[in-house]
């Protein structure tokens, strides 16, 4: 009675989709049966339940793809992303959104302003991840500095949110020059390409060397206005995490949004002696989708430059393969690939 049926029009490919496709698992989430992928989607309302009053057939919406129980402790305290019974799209055993239709509770279908496209709507999911990491957990304020490790879509969007919130300095870190160039053109004020790991060099030793080089090259200090108030790791790479903790200013905040190997080593004395506030960021929670839509609607975040590749529904396999390789046959690097719904023109945004 409280659900809506959405005819899916646009779906973005996420790194987690690729991980499930290639490895069949992410941490404790294991694919045991056939599973539909996709969770970054938008579409048009097809049908509404008998108790739904705020939506009607034909409305264009962004889909928040995780239905929660609404009655457990974390749901009631406003952290529903931690609900133990969440039914999240394309997380085993639940099917994803990459099909003709997808049903969600009505309050998880967010109307899109007329000037935002359905592609923009699909991008609200990764943008909400960035909003959650930077605004809600990172609590970034205007005129503060932020460093973001990893210039994939989520990292780039973390920079975009930081810029929209008035960050004075946004440092992008990645090992791929092309990604750094895009970050600089899009939202970053500074870029840093870490040095190469030396033969027989431990990762802890490397992170000390890399963070020292970053501080020297960019004039970063551990105190004062030239310090980094917020570090966001969107890579999940062990050396990035180790370096990020060393880059954060004394008393600063570190947010982990990228998911990587579970068995990593960090120097806890760095966390302790600098009294860092270290937080894990998991998906998004109350208010994150509305803020994401508001940032895009107001023009503070422009999502269009991030869509690098478009595929018709029947070429979904090629879309996943292209995203996995990181570039298409013509050599163009992938930032975000969008798959259109069945019978939907790829150029109909």
TrEMBL record:
One of its GO terms (biological process) is sorbitol catabolic process. It comes from the Eukaryota. The keyword DNA damage does not apply. GO terms for molecular function: L-iditol 2-dehydrogenase (NAD+) activity; zinc ion binding. Signal peptide: none annotated. It holds the Pfam family ADH_N. Residues 15-335 form the Enoyl reductase (ER) domain. SUPFAM superfamilies: GroES-like, NAD(P)-binding Rossmann-fold domains. The keyword Metal-binding applies. InterPro entries: ADH-like_C, ADH-like_N, ADH_Zn_CS, ER, GroES-like_sf, NAD(P)-bd_dom_sf, SDH-like. Keywords: Metal-binding, NAD, Oxidoreductase, Zinc. Its cofactor is Zn(2+). Belongs to the zinc-containing alcohol dehydrogenase family. This is Enoyl reductase (ER) domain-containing protein. It comes from Hydnomerulius pinastri MD-312.
């Amino acid at each position: 009675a409280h659900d809506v049926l959405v005819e899916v029009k646009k779906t973005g490919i996420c790194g987690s989709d690729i991980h499930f496709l290639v490895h069949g698992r992410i941490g404790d989430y294991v694919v045991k049966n056939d599973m539909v992928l996709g969770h970054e989607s938008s579409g048009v309302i097809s049908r509404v339940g008998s108790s739904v009053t705020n939506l009607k057939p034909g409305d264009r919406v962004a889909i928040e793809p995780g239905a929660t129980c609404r009655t457990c402790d974390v749901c009631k305290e406003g952290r529903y992303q931690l609900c133990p019974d969440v039914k999240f799209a394309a997380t085993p055993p639940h099917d994803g959104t990459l099909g003709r239709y997808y049903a969600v509770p009505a309050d998880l279908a967010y109307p899109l302003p007329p000037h935002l496209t359905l592609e923009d709507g699909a991008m609200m999911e990764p943008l909400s991840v960035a909003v959650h990491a930077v605004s809600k957990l990172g609590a970034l304020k205007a005129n503060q500095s932020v460093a973001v490790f990893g210039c994939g879509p989520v990292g780039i969007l973390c920079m975009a949110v930081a810029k929209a919130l008035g960050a004075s300095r946004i440092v992008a870190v990645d090992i791929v020059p092309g990604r750094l160039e895009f970050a600089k053109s899009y939202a970053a004020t500074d870029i840093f390409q870490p040095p190469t790991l030396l033969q027989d060099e431990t990762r802890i030793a490397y992170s000390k060397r890399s963070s020292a080089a970053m501080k020297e090259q960019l004039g970063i200090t551990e105190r004062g206005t030239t310090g980094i108030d917020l570090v966001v790791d969107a890579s999940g790479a062990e050396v990035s995490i180790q370096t990020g903790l060393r880059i954060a200013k004394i008393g600063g905040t570190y947010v982990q949004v990228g998911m990587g190997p579970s068995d990593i080593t960090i120097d806890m004395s760095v966390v302790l002696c600098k009294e860092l506030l270290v937080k894990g960021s998991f998906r998004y929670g109350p208010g994150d989708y509305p803020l994401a839509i508001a940032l895009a609607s107001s023009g503070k975040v422009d999502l269009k430059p991030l869509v690098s590749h478009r595929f018709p529904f029947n070429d979904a396999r090629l879309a996943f393969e292209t995203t996995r390789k990181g570039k298409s046959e013509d050599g163009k690097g992938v930032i975000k690939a969008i798959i259109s719904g069945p019978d939907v023109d790829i150029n109909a945004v």
